[in-house]
Amino acid sequence: MRKVVVTGLGLVTPLGIGVRRTWRRLLDRQCGIISIKDRSSEFAVLPSQVAAVVPEGKKENGMWSAKDWLSPGDERKMALFAQYAMVASEEALDDAGWAPKKEDDLEATGVYIGSGIGSLDDVYNTTVAYEKGGYKKVSPLFLPRLLINLAAGHVSMRYGFKGPNHAATTACTTGAHSIGDATRLIQFGDADVMIAGGAESCIHPLAISGFARARSLATSWNDAPSEASRPFDRDRAGFVIGEGAGVVVLEELEHAKSRGAKIYAEVAGYGLSSDAYHMTAPRADGHGPFLAMKHALRHASLSPSSVDYINAHATSTPLGDAAENRAIKDLLLGEGGKTRASEVNISSTKGAIGHLLGAAGSVEAIFTILALHDNTLPPTLNLCNPGDPAEDFNCNYVANTAQQKDVKVALSNSFGFGGTNASLCFSKM
């Protein structure tokens, strides 16, 4: 099959707008998690009153104001998650230097951008309006703003891309599935270039209520927001909801070389699996994540010993972090693996940006690509005491401070409700 490489990156995150700003702040140990209790009386009574919010402000300061980034017409037509996807796509395309005008190039370029929940605000607000005023209170833009595939649709329409136009919606695995599936579209010849990723914006009282009722959220750190997300830490007690978008430009290798494109990394492997176990809880033995990583390495024709870094899904939940830790150790310290746990390098960037749900997999894939490109492991914030000794947390979790490391091969993991798992394997060219 054809080789696929990454030639462009774009980010909208709680650390700011843009790849370089976000990456710099991440390595500087800054945190994008804030208190949201003063947003409204509805937020103030929730058990979890913290969230990782895209910062609002001036464009020149790397912050978000829709009017600075979008035309009035686009702002009106697009839900916020689609707006984030558009801005991240624009940065990724500029970074890749890909602005095709020829019909053949437009037909060979596709878009694959998904979301886990999409525009919950539109659903809630329209439902309330309909209950009060009926049919005439429903906007003609309601459904187009609601549909998850409209993020990809808007990007395709703006740039005239006529290749595959697709969207995944696989909960918190969406971003990783989008990149992996788009890679396969290129490998099988359906496109030469794909714009791929995930976007999310559902920081809404209803979403937080639902996750809180499922006992998934951090609720003990409302007065210390920046300490709430604590992957692998003994005091971890739930994830912090976040928002943003991550988009990459994927390209067939020879196509990228022929135009002299900058290449960040190769998408060397992609593994998928299912826990086949529970709607929301992971299997304690981590067998599903183990299979996803194993399949990613099999596709890449690489041994476990070759993996220099794993960007973990690790959301800061007691069960999830422990299961993933076990899966990683079973794989990397098993047959064909490393000899000591201290050689296994893992970090979770959710300590800094929270859990971006459908955008998590693509944002964290970009962090993994940058770790390869810059030979720098991003830190796991708030890791003060590794998990209970009974959970066997004895790997290198890059606690609190970034580390310099020669990285040739890296995995990026994403898992979601319903037991869906994906692992992306990136390697240096």
Concise account of the structure shown:
It is built from 16 helices and 15 strands. The chain is of the alpha/beta class. The chain folds into two domains: 4-258, Thiolase/Chalcone synthase (Peroxisomal Thiolase, Chain A, domain 1, 3-Layer(aba) Sandwich); 272-427, Thiolase/Chalcone synthase (Peroxisomal Thiolase, Chain A, domain 1, 3-Layer(aba) Sandwich), CATH 3.40.47.10.
What is the CATH topology classification name of the largest domain? Answer: Peroxisomal Thiolase, Chain A, domain 1
State the distance separating the first and last CA atoms. 16 Å
- What CATH architecture of the largest domain do you see? 3-Layer(aba) Sandwich
Q: What is the tally of helical segments?
A: 16
Q: Which percent bin holds the helix content?
A: 25-40%
CATH first level of the largest domain: Alpha Beta
Pathway: Lipid metabolism; fatty acid biosynthesis
Family: Belongs to the thiolase-like superfamily. Beta-ketoacyl-ACP synthases family.
Keywords: Acyltransferase, Fatty acid biosynthesis, Fatty acid metabolism, Lipid biosynthesis, Lipid metabolism, Transferase
Protein name: 3-oxoacyl-[acyl-carrier-protein] synthase
